[in-house]
Write a structure and sequence with these properties.
single chain, seven-stranded mixed beta sheet, binds cobalamin, globular, alpha/beta, Rossmann fold, binds iron/sulfur cluster
């Protein structure tokens, strides 16, 4: 069967930069899974391919289309789906990805045929077998669809939701990186380039209440065996690897085996990971060894500077552990990409204090606005207070709750001043080495033109 795999264009602030670009790993996984079944998938990454959807549909003439996307791309996914169905209603459209996994009900108004609400891909082959049989006019068993876990489908105009199953990333295939190597020059995280993504786990063992990721895979953490992870990394012809685990620093024995195998196999790469401050604070020796084998950057949720705020997020980290984490990363020459949250209860003085606190330490920060993202534990608490229900704004850079001590406009001014002030302060960091700023400005213009074109021709 001819299958088209679509990654929609980036929405929001990330669309204006090429300094942080990742391969479409989810589509590479789908590509691999479909190829294993003898199908002919085609990747259509709308971040880079400017040809319109209609032209692509005419070229590929797909019988099945899969669309991925994050929460900010929800409306776009639905629009793409509409256009595909306008073109040919017999094309079967499957929507999936992180947002569909949890917020699948948001897509009930779409014209999609199936919503795939799992972390893994095992059930996708079952669904494809069903579609193949349906398309070839073969007689189908009465329970053919109801027996596929983790999908939603329509029956007599109503959506039926099949129960989820808990999965393990051990079941994922090793992704075919043909697309990656063809486009390798694009993929980077600032000075780390070319950069590959590696997926090693589902969900997280902790339960910070603002976090969406921890609720994936039905809230159950699972990771691959360390040997398969190291083998995949060793097979990659790139100098840098971003491990996508929401928290890679979970288990000391696992990490020791990771270090041993990386050394044994003579792998020399730089690693970018997510990790928690408490783990780093209590494992100084281990972090030193990880730095020796190439750990170069840790994205660490420092979130706040005071105990009350950290406790209110159910973070189970103390301000002292945050401080210790910053020290250990600095002493081991690892970039501390600290993630912070500004809350709507902050005063102007609080913004100033936060600026000073971050600026005085060795941190390359990203500051987000406190966002009750749909799918996180705190969403229901704040749902009725949201200033907008537009999910495109759930990008952590918009203020969705009314500020308590200033106007919304003033709050956003303080937020931008804080973020831009910190970016300016760190402008000479080696993380930004080799960035071509005039090129980056031209890129913004180019993005604006593409956005304008796509308003009229999708
Ligand atoms: C790397 C990353 C990025 C990269 C982009 C990566 C890329 N390839 O495009 C950058 C830094 C640019 C980025 C930006 C953003 N990101 Co981000 N990002 C991630 C991260 C760390 C890994 C994503 C990834 O590539 N995983 C690897 C792939 C293989 O895994 P996967 O996407 O889970 O796919 C699996 C299944 O879902 C399934 N699947 C996926 N698609 C489909 C489609 C079909 C049809 C089917 C059947 C199955 C299927 O197949 C895979 C097999 O396991 C995740 C957190 C995480 N650990 O997952 C957040 C995450 C995806 N990002 C998130 C968010 C919110 C954003 C932003 C909106 C905001 C922000 N401030 O970061 C922007 C939006 C950019 C945009 N696209 O418009 C959220 C999404 C929440 C949601 N409800 O959708 C996540 C989950 C983190 C979080 N904060 O909760 N991000
Ligand atoms: S914020 Fe990080 S540590 Fe907390 S639950 Fe989410 S992924 Fe886990």
């Amino acid at each position: 069967m001819r299958i088209l795999l679509i990654k929609p264009e980036t929405v929001g602030v990330f669309s204006y930069t090429y300094l942080v670009e990742h391969e479409p790993l989810e589509l590479e996984y789908l590509y691999t899974a479909f190829r294993a079944q003898g199908e002919q998938p085609v990747i259509y990454d709308r971040r880079y391919e400017l040809c319109s959807l209609k032209v692509k549909l005419k070229q590929v003439r797909p019988e099945v289309v899969c669309i991925t996307g994050y929460i900010t791309q929800q409306k776009l996914m639905i629009r793409l789906c509409d256009e595909i169905k306008e073109w040919d209603p017999s094309v079967r459209v499957i929507l999936g990805g992180s947002n569909v996994e949890i917020n699948f009900r948001n897509y009930y108004d779409s014209r999609a045929d199936y919503l795939y609400h799992l972390s893994g891909l095992k059930m996708l082959s079952k669904l494809l077998r069903y579609i193949r049989a349906e398309k070839s006019g073969r007689k189908l068993k009465a329970d053919a669809l109801s027996s596929i876990p983790g999908i939603c489908y329509r029956k007599d105009g109503e959506w039926i939701v099949n129960p989820k199953i808990v999965e393990s990333p051990e079941e994922l295939p090793i992704p075919d990186r043909t697309y990656f190597y063809r486009n390798i020059r694009r993929f980077r995280y600032l000075c780390f380039r070319p950069l590959a993504l590696v997926k090693n786990s589902y969900s997280c063992r902790k339960a910070c209440n603002f976090c969406f990721c921890t609720n994936r895979n039905s809230g159950r953490y699972a990771c691959r065996n360390v040997e398969s992870l190291v083998n995949e990394i060793a097979s990659l012809d790139v100098p840098a690897v971003h491990i996508t685990d929401d928290d890679f620093l979970i288990d000391e024995a696992y990490l020791r085996e990771f270090i041993r195998l990386i050394r044994e196999k003579g792998v020399h790469k730089k690693y970018l990971i997510y990790g928690r401050a408490d783990f780093i604070a209590h494992h100084e020796e281990l972090i030193k060894e990880l730095a020796e084998i190439g750990l170069a950057l840790v994205m660490v949720g420092l979130e706040a500077t005071d105990k009350a705020s950290l406790d209110s997020y159910n973070k189970h980290v103390t301000p002292e552990e945050n401080e210790e984490c910053i020290r250990i990363l600095h002493e081991n020459h690892i970039f501390c990409a600290g993630l912070f949250i500004v809350e709507q209860s902050m005063t102007k003085a609080d913004f100033k204090r936060l600026y000073r606190w971050i600026a005085e330490r060795d941190i390359i920060p990203t500051v987000s606005v406190f966002t009750p993202m749909q799918g996180s534990a705190i969403y229901t608490k704040y749902e009725d207070e949201l200033l907008t229900k537009d999910v495109t704004k759930q990008d952590l850079f918009h203020c969705l709750l009314a500020p308590e001590h200033m106007s919304l406009r003033r709050f956003m001014f303080e937020y931008y001043r804080l973020s831009l002030g910190l970016a300016w302060k760190n402008r000479n960091s080696s993380l930004y080495e080799g960035n071509n700023y005039p090129g980056a400005m031209l890129y913004i213009l180019w993005v604006l033109l593409v956005k304008l074109k796509r308003r009229f021709i999708l």
